[in-house]
Structures are given as C-alpha cells and as structure tokens.
Structures
1.
Amino acid sequence: MSKILVSTTVNGEAQEFACDPSTSLLDALRTELHLTGTKEGCGSGDCGACTVSLDGEMVCSCLVLAAEAEGRSIGTVEGIAEGSALHPLQTRFLEHAALQCGFCTPGFLVAAKSLLEKNPDPDETEIRYWLAGNLCRCTGYDKIVRAVQHAAADLRQERTVA
Amino acid sequence: MNDMSGKPQYRVVGTRPVRPDGIDKVTGKAVFSADHFVAGMIYGAILRSPHAHARIRSIDVSKAAALPGVQAVVTGADFPTLQSLEVELGEGGGNIVDFSRNCMARDKVYYDGHAVAAVAATTLAIATEALELITVDYEVLPHVTDLAAAMAPDAPILHDKIRTKGLDTPSDKPTNITMRYVKQHGDAAAGLARAKVVARGSFSSAPVHQGYLEPQACTVSYNADGQVLIWASSQGAFMIRTVTAQILNIPIADIRVTPLEIGGGFGGKTVIYLEPVAVLLSKKSGRPVRLAMSRSDVFRATGPAPGTVCDVAIGADENGILTGAEVIFSGSAGAFPGSGTHPAAICSLACYKIPDYYIEGQDVVTNMACTAAYRSPGAPPIIFAVESVIDELANTLGIDPIDFRLRNAVQEGDPSPTGTPFGPIGLKEILEAAKVHQHWSEPLGPNQGRGIAAGYWPNFGGQSTAAVSLTDDGTVIVTTGSPDIGGSRASMAMMAAEVIGLPYENVRAIVADTSSIGYSMLTGGSRTTFATGKAVVEAAEKVVDEMRSRAAQIWGVDGSEVEWIDGEASCTAPGKEARLTIKQIAGKTGMSVKGPISAESTVNPPDPGPGIAVQIVDVEVDPDTGTVTVLRVTALQDVGRAIHPSYVEGQMQGGVVQGIGWALNEGYVFNAKGQLDNAGFLDYRIPVASDLPMISTVMIEVPWPSHPFGVKGVGEAPICPPMGAVANAVSAATGVRMRHLPMSPDRILSDIAAAQ
Amino acid sequence: MTSATYHAPASVAEAVGLLSANPAAKVIAGGTDLIVQTRSGRVKPSAYVDIKRIAGVSGIRAFEGGFAIGAATPCTALLEDAALCAAWPGVIEAANLIGSVQVRNRATMGGNLCNASPAADSVPALIAAGATCVVAGPGGERVVPVSAIPASPGRTSLAPGEFVVEIRLPAQPANASDAYLRAIPRTEMDIAVAGAGVALVMEGGVCKSARVSLGAVAPTVLLVEAAGAALVGTTLDDAALDAMGEAVRAACKPIDDKRGTASYRTHTAAVLARRAALIARDRAGAKA
C-alpha cells in the first residue's frame, strides 16, 4: 500500500499531505491537517456536517477522495473568519442563537456562505432548499434560517456601502 | 428588584447575550468527542453482531491479534463478572450487569449491532481489517423485533430469568414482559359508564432514534498505576465515571473524565457504550485509544426510544367534563428492561382533571438495541394517543378543542400525578393564549387541517455542584460539572452575573472535569438550568456575602450594615456612607492577604417545576400521494422564567421539529432477519430544512417558587404535543383518524382507503 | 490489506486501458454512490479511475441540434446552460433532485445511470427524452440508448473496460417539452419511492408523440410505450390521462421495501405520470 502525496490549497494556504488512495478528503483534513472543525456525522453524504468548498463549490468532504484534491482549492470553517474578524454569518449565527450543540454549525456556515456567494438575496424557501443537505437536530432550523437572512442583509449592505 | 406590577426586573436574566462557547463553535475550534488527539493514540474498532438473536458458541481472535499493527483485542471474556445492581442515572437507569453486557456481549447477542469484540491498532484501517479476521461461531436463535409479537405466548424469549414484575398473581413462566405498572384513581369503569360520550382507539408507534448529529466517541488513556483518563462527550461526565468504574471494578477516584463538547444527546447520551471497552483496549495495549462509532453503529447499537402500542378510552359528559379514562399501553425496551413505563403512565393523563381513571403500562424486551432516554422518555407516544382521543371527544361533542381542554385543565392546587397538589402551573394560561392567538382563527384551504395538543413532563431536580470564584480584577469564574448541550454555560453565567451585579461579560462559565468539581448528575430531564442553576445562584450568593463581609471589615462596621446594591457594597451605618465596587473589594482586601474569595454550593432540589406545552399545527395533505406538508406551527409553553429566551425558544423549536419527524417519517424498519434496515440518515428520515416552516414560539412565564428566578425546565415538554397535534391536523384534513406513527405517505393513503 | 490504487487518466484511451487491466477497477466521476458503497463494504474496487481530468468528459456542447453532456459533468453545472434547460427542463430538474446541493455539485447523470438503481432520478427523464450515450471501450466507441445501460439493480450492460463518456439529448422540436416528478416522504434528501418522466411533442393542442418512463417500480427504469400511446392523438383530456394511468399501473412491477409498499408505488407512479404529462404539455404549449 503506497501513499499518495497530495498538494492542495486549504483556506488559502498551500498544504501537502500523504494519504491512502481510499482516504476521504474529510479524514485527510481532520487527521493529516488537524482541521477538526469539519465534522463527520454520517460518512455517507446525508448530513452535511463535513461540508467544505472545493474549487468554490460546496461538497461533502466525506464523498471526495483526498487524492482528488490534488491541485484544487479547499475552504473549511476554519477559513471563514478573517483573522479575528468574524464573517457576518458567524456573527449572526451567534446573535440569533442559531446553534445549540454546535456540531452541525461548521457545515451550515460553509453551505450558507456558498449560498450567499451565488445568491445575495435568497428568499426563505431558497435558503431552506439550499440547506436541505445540512441536518440539524437541535434547532428546528428556524433560527438558522433567520441568521442566514440577517447575514445576507448585512452582506448586501456592505456591498452597497463599498 | 420589583416594579409596580410586582414582576421582578432583572438586568441580565431575560436578555440574549452571545454564549461563552459561541466563538469556538462558529470558527471550528470547539473540541468535540472525535476531535481530541492524545500523543501516541491508537485506534479502536468494534465487531458487531449481524444477528438479531444468537448464542455465541466461541470467538477466535487469534488471526486478528496476529495482524501487524494490532495492539490489543478485547472480548466479553475480558470483562469482570458483576453482581446485580440497579443504578439510577438521572434519566432512567438499569442494572449494571445489563449495562456491561450491552457494552460487550457475553454468551448471547440480543440485537443486530450488539458488540462482540474490539480491536485496537496503529491505524483505523488496520483495526477495521482485523475485525474481519475474527471468527465468531453463532448459534442463531429465533428473534422478535415487533412489540406485539414479543408479548405473544409463543414468542422467542430473550432472557430466561425474566418474570413479569407487578402482576396481581405472580407467574413463573419465562416472558419478555419485564414488568407491569398500574396507576389508578377511583373506578375507571364507573367513570366511563357515567359519560355521555366515550371516544376510544388503539394506537401504535414505531421505535425512533434521538438522531443527535455527533456519533459517540471517546479517547481513553489507562496508566500502569490504574489511573484512567477519559475524554468523551456525553450528557454526564460523572455518569461515565460511575458506570465505567462499576463495570470494570475500578475505584471511582481513579477515573478522571473530561467532558468534551457534545454534539447533541436528547437523552441518548445518558448511557455509555464505548468507554469501558476503550479502557480495556488501553490497558491491554498500554496506549491511549480512540474509539468512535459510525452512523450505522449509532442507529443499530445506541438508544432508540421504544415503540408502543396503546389503547385509550376517555369519557365526557354533555358539558364536556371528563368523567373517566382508561389507558393501557406497552413499550418495547429493546435488549434489556426499561422503556420509560413509569413516566409514560405518570404523564399520560396529567394535563386533565379526571375523577376516575386506570392506567396500565408494560415494559417488553425485544431484539433491538437497548432503548435509552429520549426527551420526556416514554411519554410522547402515549400522550399522542391520549391527545388524539381528547380531540375526538371534543369533535363528537362539538366543542372547540381549546375550550374542551380548558374545561378540564389542571391548575394550581389540583392533585398532580404523584398525588401532591400542583404548584403554580400555567396550562390554563397557555390555553388562553392559544385561543386568542391569531393562528387559531386563521382560515384554512382545501385539504388542510389544524390540530392542537397538550403535553406534560414532570421535570427533574437532582444533585448538582457549582463553584463561583472572584479573580483579582473583579471578574468571576463559574464552574459546574454539567455538560453544556444547548447553551447552559450562558444561562449559568447570566444567573451568577444577576446575583453578583456584574455585567454578563465579566462572568465566564466553564464545565469542569470530574476531578475538578464535586458531583453533578447528568444533563437531562430538563434539570440543568433548574438544579445546577440553583447551585450557581447559591454559590454566587456566598461570594456576595463574603464580599459584604470584606467591605464591612474595611469600613470597620458590622456586616449587617453593608448592603449589596447593583454590584456594589454600600455602607448603611449612619455617618459612614460609602461604596465599594467588586473590583475595589477584589483589589483592596488584597485577596493575597485575606485569602481568595471562592464558594461552592451543592444542591439536590426535590421539587422541580413541571414542563407543560401546547402546540398548534396546520398541515396540508396531498390526497393523491399522501404527502403531508407542515404549513404552520405555534408552540406555547410555560417556561417558568426564561433566563436566556433565545435558548428557551431553541429548546421549544427543536422539540417541536423532532416531534414532527416522529409524527411523519421517522421509525425503525427491521428486515425479516431482524436487522435494522434503515441505519442511516438517508432512510431514517429526520426533518430537513425544506420540510418545515418557521416555528413560532410563545413563552408563558409562571415562575416556579423553588428556583431563585422561577425557572422550570424547558427541554422535555416540547416533544410531548407534536405527534398529537400533527395527527389531529392530518385527521382534520383527511377526515380519517390517524392512529399509527409514523404517518408516512403510504400509511396515510392506506388508512384513507381503509376508511372508505 | 488490499488497498485500491488511484488514477487520474488524461485521455479516454488511458482510462479504457486502466479499466481493462483491472477488472475490479471502478470509474469515479462524482463518487457520491461509489464512495458510500466502498465505505459500507458493498463494493471493493481494486482501483479508482477518476475520469474528471479527461478533456471533453466534462461540460456541455451542442450536438446535432441537441446536446452532448460529458459523463463527468456535475448535475448543478447543467443548470448553467440556458439552452439545455429550455429544451429539456424535465431532465435538468430530475438531475437536480438527486441528494443535496453538496451531492449535486459532484454527482453526474453518467454516474446516476451507471449506478443502475431503479430509483435513479435522472434516468426516467433521460429515457423519456430518448437520450443516448456514448460508451468507450477496448473496441472503440459505440452509441446506445440510455435505456440499454441498466441491466438489473446495481448492474449495467457495460462490458469489461467500458465506460460512459457522454450522454446525448436529441434535438427538441419547438412545441415539445418534458417533465419529471417523484414521490418522496420528505422534500429533499430522499430516494424516489416512485418517479415518472414524460416527454411530449404537441401540435395545435394535440399530442403528436409521447414517451413515459417510470422509476422505482421495477428492477430497472421502465419505458411504458402503452402509456405514451394512450396520449398520442389526444389533447391530454381526462379520458386519455386515465388510459395512460391504467397503462402505467399495468406496467409497474414494484416490491415492498423500507421506502414504500408495492401498492403505494403503483398508485403513485400513475399519479405522478399524470401530473408530469400535464406539466410537459403546459411547457410545450408555453413554448409554441
């Protein structure tokens, strides 16, 4: 069994790691790079807790082979804040109490960020369908949807001011 | 602290600050159970039975042990033999012998997914490969996963020694019915005979899972001197410590459990599965061991809530006053006894004044994973049955369902299920609020229906320890042993800040490991903000007392001449008016001179305020496909006092949505071999965001006198009404009474067809 | 431990060579079925042959008045081609019902087809549309109807060394359209309990041709010719729709399983086919 050396960019930084051919991107992020913010809730693409962006598109990192990440750019929850400055989604998730246990939160944040990059003004239905691949068992989704709506308004405001 | 209306005015309690652990949880820094790394750590894996019921003739682990990289192999033979001992864990309990056998099978496996052996190796891949080299010789036995079948006279017997407890005439016949519990008042038959109308029905529900997003995991390091370090997420680090010690015969003080962040529990993490196995793997290998479940392991081997069957008959007179009731139910406990029979019986009729009733519950073992607590353990499916029959009675009598419930609702002074009079409870207030809520009078469209239901859970008090310490600069640290599963660190800090008179930001709350603070029962039963909160308030009051006493010394006055006002000591001695801030006291007294200011408090309050909730649900049913769309939900609850209203609303909304899942789509499906056929989130269908509307909440505050701020536990009650409310709504939309959970689309169509 | 190897060939020929050399090799495009099946132990590939780095196997191009869609094109990328969405809205909708957005950012119609599940959402829509696919193999390329690929649940008719490189949708007349509907207990994240794809050509309000395809009601996706025939020459009046529903129910050979009962599947397939036919008719009318 020979390891594969993979060169990627993770949250803007060049990263190299060695992995088995069947290692998932999720396991490589967590075990090789110690980026444990990305969670495993199911390992079958059904819960979204492992959501990361891969070349700008959100994917379940449990359903990506780490070897496929060669030369690609990965974004995880650890890369959402800029230094100590929280992203509006993070701020609004906290203000709206959009997390209880917080285990699904990283996946929701990556997914919601992806949504707002593509659709700055989503309606409630669009938010709910976009986030349908992210399970939350604590909140009933209400406060998550509100936090995303609020963050979307913040980002639109920022854009207007800029 | 009182305004003109008599309602207390608080500075911090009732506000909505950001939780102390919030930043960690939105930046990916929070360390959950599978995120903890220990130097030298190796990885464990568990071999699980593919059979629902089998005798283990032999296990050959020699090939696995010989695989390069394998460091330890453990089977049931490595576990000590234990004496029978009943253990109360706070949200249910059981026998330590059963707990041990549930962690690792001995002579028999009782369910698909039952652990039979474990391996630790240098990588998870090697450990997993080693499992395939273990040979287990099984004698497959007839199995029974269905509740009704398990009660049949010729059912396969799980445990030869079980005899039904609580029978009027004891029987020596082996059985799966572990006990019968009866609660009655007056003469139920006479009460029903007095009624003008009696509604009745037979109801059933499939087993469901708590569905927490984080699979169980732990890391364990066993040292040569017998001391054990455990890092795990659970609802109770002290529970892990106690049960692990008892299963392995280790002195309790030799085990130190550090609670990591917990990714949901809902009762499912009030018991343990992995820790004793990991201790043995670590002991054998001499290495720290990580053991984690897969999602499939979680569904197959951890706590579902019981499936139920329930017959209900309730009678009312022509004025809609209830006259009598009969509730007879059974619950499937899974592999070992304990399906919440007692709380289910207690809660089933608790919302209503009924002079004559008979409640009988049975606990039945089946070849399914051993059930664990799940939000109001035992009660929700029985309340579903009762609320469905109440709905039918109201319909038959032509009385508005809220008015019908108001006529019969319990209030302060009425006997509670335990016989003692209810304290201040807000059921009538909730129903009045529901009645005037705009939702209740909103028009409905074609194929739409509206349902309402109520629910009750007694809540729990229990033992808690809290410590409050003042630092040199006047900031404060609150330490508890209660895992924070949904924002409790925030409410602990808020209560301490309120008592001491500090801004919330000057108080930091942490959850300590089991060697760093005194005992606390687990986080469960809606007890933490009530009981641990009470301990925090008491400890904070002791710190205030000490600060007053220091101020008195500084001023040279008697302690009685110092008042604590808005976070400052104020001297009331004539001619000596003066003030000292917390910061000044912390600095001036020179804690280095007079000694640090720190206080601990332990409590065991016996008198929690109950949780009572009412919910209104609108649905639309597609008559051609049976698909149900939930259009609108309003959840009302007596919360006593909301310390952090956002997290109280969150408990209500989360409970409602779990209940909607229970009502519509969730349920265990077993195949002909007794294997769980839907052991994943694809086919165990918890609600997704697009299934739901916003969940409106109405918090009614009827303060509970035995908590300093009036808190009533809020976590359990919200899952009691949803199944009844959804079923009543679907029944209203279709004109056909739905009596089985889940109300899946094919079930709804077949029930409609059967009624025509 | 026999670990798989990972390959990212740069050409179709290289991929065919790898697949031919490793009988237990598996093609990975989106990986959303393959990785799940590998993790559960259901499949044990000796090699992963990642086709996403082959030029021309991803992306959409115009072809003979219709469209050629690379087999590694993720479902969400289909939404960005306005002409494709206008011509075959049912196919695009079907492909974008699979899993979640995360899954559809990886999952492909090629993979959905070659996973050979009778409940695959895009397959009934493709079959109703009369789609074909290009299969590359040791003997070169061949073009076969999409309906020829699934053989039985989980098995395809592909020969060793072969893989699907492209799916082709035919040219769509101006007054034609399609639709796909499925029944699931939730609103997202489920496998179809029953699915129906309908493609129609209308002329002056009368149906000139119709293809009706059903998912999750038989071991493979069905093309129900009698159901299509029941619509041809009609305005899709109630009698025609009833006759189509009758033909649909007659064609269903479902099983009871954890996702639904056989009788529910048969009943619902007819309901969905009727609704899909009306949507397709309205779409065709809106175009004309």
Note: Chain A has two domains: 4-79, 88-161.
2.
Amino acid sequence: MNKLKQLLSDDHWIVPFLKFQKAGLFWSIFLSLLTTLAAGALMFVSGYLISRAAQRPDNILLIYVPIVLTRGFGIARPVFRYTQRLVSHNWVLRVVSQARKRLYSSMASQASSIRGRMQTGEVLSLLADDLDRLQNLYLRTLFPLGAGILLYIFVSLAFGIVNWLFMIWWFLVLAIILIVIPAISFVINRPRVHHQKKLQNKLYTDATDAVLGLQDWVLSGRQNDLVAYQGQVMSELADTKNKEMRFGWWRDFTIQALVLILVITTLLWAGNQFSDNHVMVNYIAAFTLAIFPLVDSFIGVNQGVSEASFYEDSIERLNDLPLPTVMSDSVSHIHNATINFKNVTFKYDEQLIIDQLNLTIHSGEKIALLGRSGAGKTTLLKLLSGDIEPNNGTVTIDDQPTINLQQQLSHIVAVLDQQGYLFNTTILNNVRMGNVDATDEQVKAAIKQAGLQALIESLPDQYETQMQEAGARFSGGEQQRFALARILLQDAPIVILDEPTVSLDPKTESDVLTQIFTVLHDRTIIWVTHHLTGIDHVDHVYFLESGNFTLADTPEKLKKTSPRFQQLLAMDDY
Amino acid sequence: MIDKRLFQLNGIIKTLIGLVLMTGLQGLSILAQGIFLARAIVGFWEGQSLSGIGIDIISFAVAFLMRQLLIVLKNQYMSHFADRAVETYRVQLLSKYIEIGPSVIAKTGTGTAVTTLGAGLDNVKNYFQLLLIKVFDLSIIPWLILIYIFYLKWEQGLFLLLIFPVVIIFFIILGLAAQSKADAEFANFKNLNNRFVDALRGLPTLKQLGLADSYSDEIYNISEDYRKTTMRTLRVAITSTFALDFFTTLSIAVVAVFLGFDLLDGKMALLPALSILILAPEYFLPLRNFSDDYHATLNGKNALTDVMDILGKPSVKNRHKLLLDQWRADSELELAQVSYGYEDKLVLKNIDIHIKGYQKIAIVGESGSGKSTLLNILGGFLQPNTGEIKLNGQDLPHLMQSDWQKQFFYMPQQPYIFHDTLRGNIKFYAQHATDKGIQLAVVQAGLTQLVSELPNGLDTIIGEGGRQLSGGQAQRVSLARMLLDDQRQVLLFDEPTAHLDIETEYDLKQTMAPILDSHLVFFATHRLHWLDQMDYVIVLRNGEIVEQGLPQNLLDKPDSQLNILRHELGGRQ
C-alpha cells in the first residue's frame, strides 16, 4: 500500500494528464453516465408503461408520455454510447500525443551521442508500449470508475426524493458493490498480477531459450528436458491465471447475489410503498426492472479496478524517467581542435574505468584506439563528447572543458558508429540531416564524395528513394557510406569513428575505410577499431587496458619494436 | 463460426455435451427468473398479500442464483478443458520444433516461433475458453426464450425472430465497411507508428547531429496525425457496434410500446406482457456478449492458425538410419556430388569430400561463398537436395542422424547463452558434471577472470534479462561446454572468432589451439591465420570447391586459389 502511495505522489504521467483538456474528460465520463442512465430509464419507463396500460386507462394520452420516452431512451442509449466512445478515444489519443512528446524529450535529454554496448532500441520500444498501455488504464479503469461513482451519487439521491430511509439502504449496498468489493479485489489480485507478470516474462525467456537455443537442446540430446522444463512455467502461469479468473467469477457471483438482495428489497419496499395508490402502483415494475441495467455498469468497474495493477510497472518505468532538462545556452567558440585529456580518472559504481589517463590529439591528427570489450573505450569517447564528467583531471577541446561544449557539440564532433542510423525518409532528407541548411547541390556533392553516385543512379527514384525502416533497403556498406555523407555535410573538425566497419565483410571493410580516410583527410579522427585492418591510415595507435594505455606509438614503430603488435598484426595480415 | 480444427481435439465431444447441458439449464433458469419476477411484480400490482407472493420471490431468487452459478461453473469447466488442449499443443509444438530443427525455424523467423510458443498458446487458450461458451450461449439461450415468447404472444415472438437476422446483417455489413476502412488506413497507421519508434531508436544519431531537441515537435505532429487517422477509422469501426446496440435497444422499446397498446386494448394480461418485457433483453444478451469479444477471438483464431501451420510442416524422415557408436581414427565420411539450394539457385554445387579419422579441416572462402551452408550440411541441420553421403560405408540421405549428432560439438559465431546461471550454462551438455570438472573447464576455457568478476561467481544469472556477456566471453562459455563434454570426437566451428576484437581473438586462439588435437575438426572461417592449426584446407567460391589440399602446399603455389583468396581478403601481398 505504501508503495502505491509512493507511486501516486511521484506520478507525473497520469494525474497531470487528467488535468489536461478538462472538457474532454468531463464529457467522456458524463456521457458514460448518461448511457447507463438511459439504459435504466428505458426499463423504468417501459415497466411503468405496460403496468399503466394494463390498468386500461380510458384515454390513450395518459400513456402517451411514457410511450414517447420509451422510444426516446431506446434511441438515446446507443447514441450516447457511440458518442462516448468517440469522445473518450479522442481524449485519450490527445493525451498520448502529449505523453509521447514528453517521453521523447525525457529520453532526448539523457541520450548520449555515443552508443553504448547495451541495445537501447528494446528499452525504447518497451517505453512506447507502456504509453499504449496507459490508454487502457484510462479507458478501462478510470472512466468507468468515474462514471460509476457519479451514477452511485445520482441513484442514491434519486431514491432520497422518494424515501430517505430506503436511500440509506441503497447507499450502503451500492457502497459494498462499488467501493468495498473493488478495493478487496484490487488488494487480493495485486500480488497475483505481479506474479503473473513475472511468470509471463519467464515464459517469454523460456520460449526464447527453447527456440534460439534449439540447436543446443537437440545436440546435447536433452529434447525431453526441453519439453518438461518449458511446461513447468506454462502450467504455473495457467494456475495463477485460473486463480485470478476464478476469483473474478466468484466476485461477479457475489455482486449478483447482492443485486438479488437489492432487487428483492426494492420489490418489497415498492410493493409496500405504492400498493395503496392506483397510479403509484405502476412504479413497482418500473423500479424493479431499472436495477438490472444500472448494476451492469458496476460490474465493469470491478473488472477495471482489478486490472489496474497491470499498469503499475508501466507507470513506474515511466515515472523513473528523468524530467526533461533545459540546457544552458552558453556558447563558446572553438578555434583549434586540439584535444587534451589531463590526468583523467573516471569511476562508475566505485569501479575504476579510466585511471589517470593522459592523451593529446592535435588538430588534424588521426589515432586508432584498440582494446578488449570493457577496457574503457566507450567511456573515453563519452568523456570526449562531454556526456560524462571525469572524477579527476580535465578533458578539453581547445582548452575548454568538453562538458561546457554540449550545446554546440554537433558543430565540433561528428560520430560515425557501428550502425549509422538512417531514418525512414528519402535519401536526400537523410543526408541533409547533417546540415539542415545545406542546398540540394551540397547534399548531392557529399553523397558523391562518399562513393554513392553509381548506386543512386541505379535507383528509379534516385535521391528521392525512401530509406525504409532503419535503412534496411541498403547493404551494410552502403548504409555506412550514407552515414559518411551525412558527416561530410556536418563539417565538424573532429570525427569519432566507433567501430564503423565491424559488421562488414573484409573486402567491403577495406573499401569503406579507404573512402573514409580519403574524404576526411583534413579532420581530426579518433577511430575505435576491433582489429588492425587499415591501421596504416592513422598516425598513432593506442591500446587501452584497465583504463590506461599499455601500448602507444606510430604504427611503423610498433611494427618494428613491439612483439605484441607483431603477433596481432600477423593474424590480420596472414 | 467454429473452427473445424476444434473437433480434432481429444475429448471435445464429451466436453461439448457437458457444455450443452449446462447452457440449456442456464437458459431454463433465465426463463424461470423472468417468469417468477414478473409474477411477483404482478402480485404486488394486484395488491395480493405477501404470503401469496412469497413463493414467487423465493423461486425467482433460486432461479437467479442458479443462473449465476451456472455461469461460474461453465467458465471453470471450459477453462479446465482449454488448459488441457493448450498443453497438448505445447508438447506437439516443441516436438515439431525439435524434428524440423533450427535451420528451418530460422527460415520462417525465430520471432514467430518464440511468439507462437509463448503468447500464441495463451491466445489459443482464451479462444477455446471464450469462443465455445459464447457460441453455445448464442445457439441455445435466445431460442429457448423465443419459444416461450411465441407461446405467450406469437406476434411479439415473430417480431423478435425477424429482427435478429437484421441486427446480424447490419453488424456484418458495417463491420466489413469498418474493415475496409481500417485496411485503407493500415499503411498510414504502420507508417506513423514506425516513425515514432524510428525517432526513438535514432535518438543517438539525432543527438550526434544536434537535432535531438528540435525533433520533439515533429514527434507531437506525428502523434497528432496518428490520432486523426485513428479517429477516422474509429468513427466507422464503432458503427457496427452502434448498429447492434441501436437495433437491440430499440427492439426492446418497440416491444414495450406494442405490449402497451395490446394491454390498452385488452388483448392481453399484464403477466405475459411483463414476462415478455423482462425476457426481451435476455434474448439479445448472448448476441451482445458474442460481438463484444469478437476481436479477442480473432486474435486467438490467428494464433491457432500459426500453431497449426507449424504443426503441419513436414518432418525430416530417416533420422535414425546411422549406426555409429563413436568416431574413431579409422572412421570415414564421404560426400559425393552433394548440392543444396532453393529452386534454380544453388548455394552449394557438387561438393566432393572424403575424410578419414582425426583430420583438421579448414573451410575457407569469402562471405557468401557457402562455408556456413556446408557446415550446416555436415551437422545435419540442412538436408542436401542431391548427392550421396556415406559414413563408414553406410549410405545416408542426410546427416540429421541422432547417432551422428551425438558425436560432434558445434560452436557457432554467436553461441546462445541461456537465461540460467553461469554454472547451468557451462554444464548444459554434461548435466552430471562434478563441481571439480566444472572448475577445471572454467580454468581451461579462460573464464577464471569472468567468474571472479561476477557478483555470485558461477551462480550468477546470465543471458537474456540477466547479465550480458561480451562476444568473447560467450565463446569461452561455449568452449567450457565443449571441454566438459569430452565424449565428442568431432568439432564443428562456424567463424568462432570473426566478430571479436583482435586481442580477444588472440587470447581465445591460445586457448583453443591445444583442444583441437585428436579430434575431427571442421573449421569454417575467413580469418586465414587459423590455417596454421589445420592440416587440410577446402577453398570455396560461389558454392563450389575450387581447391582442396594441404595448406602449406597450396600456400607455396603462388597462383593457387588459396593465395588468390588471401589477396582478396587483404593479406600480405
């Protein structure tokens, strides 16, 4: 419960959006109330109508009003319902638009220009799904709950006009149906829902283990283990779900039993209250029949509330996102692209990642950076781009700390990484993202420089060809060349190459590297690479291990003096 | 409405008979509930004494509770059945996966295979549980009620009977219109959705280009376009529910008004009229319930189709033809004129190989030359289209032989790491390994440092959702698996070091080289430095063997295919 309170007090994804566009919210709930009322009124009026008609009044005009009302409510209910669904969906989608923008800004404010090892794409898709799930929280839980409470107040007050003692009775029974039972089912189902979600995740990992690890299951001769292993979680999940469903069925049964009590007491009360009046006696049928459609909507509230725990971790994940920050506008100018790491130390979780490292890269110099995974290459790049600040020492470009250069970083440092991301728009638009002010001619010149002229000419739509999702239309080598064209246009003095050829075959790799170093000959280049192919392109080679350089010199010298380098080179140069 | 495939399930007929009985009983309870409520109301209306009405009220209560109880019972009954059905499918599905093997699954998409096994079966369960109850409700309850209404007043019965198909026809017609509208907007939807995910995924790139901040308005615009498109579709889509709603509610109103007129004219009494009014909503209720869950059942139906599609795939035959107890120094394997490919495009052409004993064979070539395919044929993961295979003189149609697959250990480019402890991962192939054996394998495979870094050592959970291993570490885990299971005399390697950084590759090579001795080794790679560890080489180009022989001999010949390949791969000139 405390956790729940915490969740609500930290919330900046649900409550703020409820305040947004109050009119739409009001109509969503109000129309939902009207829908139920119309359904109740239909049965109320028709009950009255036929009772009154059975008394065979002399004048048809005496039942004229109920006749009209019956038809009216018969039409009103579907119309209200239709309108309610449109209004509420529209409202929710407006909220989603706002929420998406907010999600994006939040992610953007903490995004790094250096792609880490971890695949960020999945995390992002997860968050996008969370937003979609919030739609259901509004539509299935919050709106019915709001409408249910309004209906509760309305019905109780309506009874109050007729008989206030009986109003208290209704007030109590409805409180059990609308407040006590949902609260109980929320509390009881919450751990079940959590357990169910855990099992569902496990089922997913197990299914992944079964399919992607299939070769190992087969070759190890453990086929039977696979079948048994997978079945455990499946049956446990079915068990949990069944418990949850059984609870729901019996809960609905209990509610129906309470409805039965309401119906019988109302019948008895109405029979007693109206029996001595020739006209009032017709209200017996009216009151009794109206109960059924009214309580139907309370059952919906119960379902919605027990489902509410399903959204908890989505909300938690969203609330854990940082609030979008506004960066300072201080702009400093760079005249000389000399990079300086002075005695830099960086720790993460008490673990030393970079250890008193010194490095100077002069303007126009080209260096290669090698090291095993985990040696600190990514951290070094993040320090350089000012994404993180060193615990000790300074990282500067032209004597200005990189942390202060965030705002104009894209004018100083360009990055070409493993998967130079191509957006789902035309070729021309993609490349132009390097410099949005570039003319068509400049963009085309950059594409030509990157060696893509022949490819473009072979396409029916030429420069207007759509990239398709994540550039999937083009081969790995072509994608990297498009990213290269973008960087040419960006025209930053420093270029970080973060394993740009790691996924290419050897022949393409060598071609792309030559192209890169040719067209970027006048820039400062920091090239992170996983092997020594093309090492002669650089002026200096640095081997990083445990946060410092174990080997650093020109390739020529290393070839002559370092046995370690010779061993490694022999593998690449066989 | 009901899938024919449902009737192939075990015990379905018995289950359905039970369901019919319960639904019939429920229908009768609904009738009784309506009739006794009407009697009680009329009793009060006529001013009868409570003692006379009491029996009606009690009967109403009993019928009411009976009906609600039957709903619970039916749900439990069908959920039990659905669980059993899904369990049957699960076992069949996994056996099928095992039979057709990883290569075929990879071709149809591992994503689909995972989803079918996980969420897919869950949907199938909902389908069985929901659909059958709703279909039987719809095909029994309204008609019981209708018969009674006919008995009371045939005009009303006829009206309700005629309106039923009208409701369904409108529901279907408008549903189809909504579907075509949704289809028309589908591309638009997909595009808008992709653009949002696209922007999120490309965020580091946007940041690199200095565009990250200005893109948030673009996001908002995309979302608003999405909203407008959705609302356009929705306006049409909800009309089919609206039609259903409209006709059923209006029918009740019409029935009430006509009953009113009949009563006014003295053509009928209050009791039958009130009974009809109470029963009219019940008559439509099963139809409403059915349409509410219509979409949920569609998902289930598609999931069932996926399951059935996979179960319908042909299995590989003759998987136990080979009799082989162990690969020995004098064992022989021969491939003659083996080809593999799809239709007119052959990936492997006329492969001839003759192998004896513990040879160490490098399979080299550029990417796309057929190295992996050849290795897959040798491992039995793919079956050749044509050609002959002989093992120790036994003719075999393919190498997917249980006795052969027991002989070898396969190390892929990216070994799969299970969501399990490091220990569980290492002893995957040797379940009964001792702690001592595991420790030794850890040391030999060079995993000592990793174990010391992990918070719980060997008992740390790794793999998907746990701690992720680097490529080199995953290879070492695979090596440890291999070392622990020392019964296997044949080793298959598919580019095990191609994507590693050069220092890790160097370290790993030092670990691997000594293990290769006294094994039959197939080593597919384009990293030619491995030739030093091999005693035979097969050079592939465009799916054909262009050269095979002793590595040193071929290297010494300046114009050998091996040397040509070396130059192409950028080796020393």
Note: Chain A has two domains: 2-319, 339-572.
